[in-house]
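ugh ok fine here u go
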Amino acid sequence: MLVSDALGSEPSSNSITMFDQFAFVLSFIGLGFISIIFGAFSFNDLESLRKVSFLFFIFSIFWTLPDLLNFILGEPAAPIPIIILGLIQVGLFYYGSKKGIV
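structure:
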């Protein structure tokens, strides 16, 4: 469904290959982000944890912003539950950067 929304009802084989490659790269970016989050669990200093949480907050804003903007503008976007989960993630990272405790 996403492919037909983005590339039309009859996408070419080159378009499908490009989309598959994009999805492949994006999945590794997501896995890298999750790995960094688990790596941050090794920090014990509260100030360092807050700084890292703020950096995750900034990164997650840029991660969720395209879907949110596309949804607001009526363009093809992720489903609403996915957008809400992304916004919850952003909020939790911001909360952790301001009031997080160990």
